[in-house]
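Section 3.1: Structural characterization of target chains.
Under the original work plan, the team committed to producing a structural model for every single-chain target entering the pipeline before any wet-lab resources were allocated. The record below documents one such target. The sequence was received from the expression subgroup and is listed exactly as submitted; it comprises 106 residues.
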Amino acid sequence: MFTVPELEFLPQGIEAVVEEEIAVYEPGLVKVYGQRWRAKLYDLNCQTRLLRHQPVLVVAKEGHVLLVIPHHCLLWDQYIDTYWRYVSPAEITTMRRHEAAWRFSA
């Protein structure tokens, strides 16, 4: 019998970096704490392609696949608004700095 993996949301997002491109219906790889994980976009409305070395935020896990959002998607701001109590202002500043540096280098 086929079972669908349960979606498990993380109480606090985890910073990750794209190792293999990710698109709407094309999973890729991210590196989290030095380990590579299979990953796919959490928000399928964010019509973007995540490129190698792009910073992302892991927000959930579905079986052995991580669900990520790029910092530049609208959902990122919604996530920060929802989970502001779990993320310190210093962490938000650091995440925004990484995203700005990535955009500048791309």
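The first helix runs from residue 74 to 82.
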